[in-house]
Amino acid sequence: MPTDDRSVAVVIPVYNGEKYLEETLKSVLRQTLQPSEIVVINDGSTDRSLEIARGFEPGVRVLSRLNRGVCATRNFGASITSASWLAFLDHDDVWEPNFLARMTALMADVPDATFVYADRRILSEDPDTGTFALSDPQSMPKPEMLSTHLQDRCPFTPCSALIHRQAFFAAGGFDVRHNGVEDWDLWLRLTFQKVRFAQCCEPLVQYRVHSANASRHALRMLAVSFRVLDRNLGPRMKPFERMMKLSKVKSRLEAEAAILMRENATPGSLSMMLRSIMRHPLHERRRYPIALHMLLSRTKAVPLLLTDRERVRSSLAVLSGEVLTQYQELKDSGEHVVQH
After folding, report:
1. I need a labelling partner for 98 at 20 to 30 A (CA). Which of 8, 23, 166, 202 fits?
2. Domains in the chain: boundaries
3. Mean pLDDT confidence for 135-146
4. Are 53 and 32 in contact (CB under 8 A)?
5. How far is CA 87 from the centre of its chain?
6. What is the C-alpha to C-alpha distance for residues 272 and 277, in angstroms, rounded to an integer?
């Protein structure tokens, strides 16, 4: 599939990204090896995103349309470009100046690769000051381990990768039903198609994490993640595998959702953590002290007139009720529960 044509089209969807879009675009224009196409698609923004993008014309092609979501917008952007390779950069992420040069060199080194990716750093926001700090480099899984790793979690986002056009469209592009974890879904489908992956072990990407990230919406992300697992992995697993492996992954996702819910002050974090424990009690022991802390925080509202013994009794009653509720809900839903 790959040829000597290593031209790259950069597709940047933007929705209300006025805070970060300029920095993102400058990181593309600063590349030591310039892409053949740069397309910004304004996905119905209500802020100054379109104005900022148009400030980079004519070197950047800018289009605007009604809001369709990031999946549909990326797919549309890919469809109107002609380069052999596709790079999807979100409006808040940043590339190091040699990102495209190193990716192109990797294509030459591994000529049968149809998916190349790089290591990254995290740009984390301080919620008190609004400033960002850059993490130490994060190594991505090796290509030979990527298929196994993807059965547990999504290790990187689209900004870290370049995908050959033919492989992207053969896989069907990003699935609009899986908005939020559409990258995980696509990477899994690509592994099932036996595409060749290649890795650059340099931190060439800065992935920004802030309060407006779609990944901060715990309950929605959890539901979509379950759909991706059930669609891509469930049918390929034997019943025992589904009970053990898939339950373990779902349990971990529920625990992570519970922690995020607590951080965001979303109601139901204790119930979610207990659901995780009931689904698969034998892994990630850290869940137990976290659940206890959630319980104690919740029972601070118990009337002060109660004695310490009565408080403990009240807390245990709350815990028992929550455990029974989550266990019954799991059984009623038909989900696998690991017995212990």
Report:
1. 166
2. 8-215, 219-333
3. 94
4. no
5. 16
6. 9
